[in-house]
Design brief:
It is built from 11 helices and 11 strands. The chain is an alpha/beta fold and about 300 residues long. Helix 2 crosses helix 3. The protein has 3 domains: about 80 residues, Arc Repressor Mutant, subunit A; about 100 residues, Periplasmic binding protein-like II (D-Maltodextrin-Binding Protein, domain 2, 3-Layer(aba) Sandwich), CATH 3.40.190; about 100 residues, Periplasmic binding protein-like II (D-Maltodextrin-Binding Protein, domain 2, 3-Layer(aba) Sandwich), CATH 3.40.190.10. Helix content is about 45%, strand content about 25%.
Length: about 300
């Protein structure tokens, strides 16, 4: 049996309500022949006669009365579906899979989670930490909804939308007691004498730090590489050169007892760009753009340099 269409069910309900095909047709803004043809096709699809027709109008048959109850239930359910979709148009409901790179996760996930749970209490957060290239693939394939990345990222192509959230400036992290530890801002000449510890290959922060080193005239440390940003900070505290630390990581990595001190760099200070990324054709693309707007304030605060 071929299924009836929603339009046919609407036409049936209209005829039952108005009592004639002409009045029903006028109410739904179609011609009477079109209305009659759709009702006839509905009867053929269901295999029952829905209306008794005579010169006085159209009356439901016994079968028609039973079918009308079911038809109105279907139409009511569709109306509720539309209302539900409209009520959630500006909301994020259900599973929300967020990916974040390791050099941001410990520092920027807390404000992201706080803001998402505050604004979207019906969202179910699923958090994934992975390197940039893996996150981009997961976003493109739909395994992740959104990603918190440091731009620019060569792998991000036209299939993805990007919303910039904040600039995350770099500072120089040095061991406490270093000769330059007491300087408010380091001169360009001083940076050339400090070997910079970088993360190992595969971390996007490595490429961003290398670019920053070229800007400020610092020299990356040769064969010694750190596996993570916390590891790099611990190595610097132990006396292995210095490292470039994003401002978002200062509060966590240079807390009292860390053995580190930080110094701002000369202007223009290098930075990494924190951005939210999602599939351009995602069904909730507009909601993700609104989420990005909501996150700009908290992320900017988390990336602000200490005064």
């Amino acid at each position: 049996m071929e299924r009836p269409t929603l339009r046919q069910l609407e036409y049936m309900a209209a005829v039952a309500r108005h009592g004639t095909f002409g009045a029903a047709a006028g109410a739904v803004h179609v011609s009477q022949p079109a209305m009659s043809a759709q009702i006839a096709e509905l009867e053929q699809r269901l295999g029952v006669t829905l209306f008794e027709r005579d010169r006085n109008g159209a009356r439901l048959t016994v079968d028609g009365e039973t079918i009308l109850v079911a038809a109105r239930t279907v139409l009511d359910d569709v109306d509720r579906l539309v209302e539900l979709a409209a009520s959630q148009a500006d909301d994020l409901v259900g599973a929300l899979h967020i990916g974040v790179i390791p050099t941001m996760a410990p520092y920027l996930l807390p404000p992201v989670v706080r803001e998402v749970t505050r604004r979207y209490p019906r969202a179910e957060l699923h958090l994934v930490e992975a390197r940039t290239s893996d996150l981009v693939v997961s976003i493109e394939t739909g395994e992740l909804d959104i990603g918190l990345l440091a731009m620019p990222v060569p792998e991000v192509g036209p299939l993805l939308s990007v919303a910039d959230l904040a600039k995350d400036p770099f500072v120089l992290a040095l061991p406490e007691g270093h000769p330059y530890a007491g300087r408010a801002r380091l001169p360009q000449s001083a940076l050339a004498s400090i070997p910079m510890l970088l993360l190992e290959e595969g971390h996007c922060l490595r490429s961003h730090a290398q670019a920053a080193c070229s800007i400020i005239g610092a020299s990356p440390l040769g064969s010694i590489q750190a596996t993570s940003l916390p590891a790099a900070c611990q190595m610097v505290a132990a006396g292995v050169g210095g490292t470039l630390l994003p401002a978002s990581a200062i509060e966590v990595e240079t807390r009292p007892g860390s053995g580190l001190t930080t110094r701002r760099l000369r202007r223009p200070e290098p930075y990494r760009q924190v951005s939210l990324v999602w599939r351009a054709r995602a069904g909730r693309s507009e909601q993700y753009a609104m989420l990005a707007d909501a996150l700009r304030g908290p992320i900017s605060d988390a990336c602000a340099l200490p005064t």
